[in-house]
Write a structure and sequence with these properties.
Number of strands: 6
Number of helices: 2
Largest sheet: 6 strands, mixed
Helix content: 10-25%
Distance between the termini: 12 Å
Radius of gyration: 13 Å
Structural class: alpha+beta
Number of domains: 1
Length: 102
């Protein structure tokens, strides 16, 4: 499994693997503004997750998701978790609960 030391390294590494779209988290979907794409939880899978804690504040936590749409499009979602996480639907919360296979 690939590991990264920073969010920037993770994003650059995933981009090299074809995860080129940039998704934003909405309460019940993912949205890619540049391509005007919206994905409901049924429209994508999380293929990898990388978690990072802030250097000075352990409460400053970020997660990078590698997302693959059912049509083959690949992108990333960067989101805070913990105190700064957004309210999302139960379906989206379940979808973002990534468990590695194997």
């Amino acid at each position: 499994m690939q590991t990264y030391d920073t969010v920037t390294e993770a994003l650059e590494g995933l981009k090299k693997q074809g995860f080129i779209l940039d998704y934003n988290l909405k309460p019940d979907r993912l949205h890619c503004e540049s391509k005007n794409i919206e994905l409901s939880p049924a429209d994508f899978d999380i293929v990898d997750v990388f978690r990072f804690e802030g250097m000075t504040d352990p409460g400053d936590e970020t997660v990078v998701y590698a997302v693959e749409a059912t049509n083959g499009d690949k992108g990333t979602l960067v989101d805070a978790y913990g105190t700064y996480s957004e309210a999302i639907s139960p379906e989206m919360a379940e979808k973002l609960r990534y468990t590695p296979e194997g």
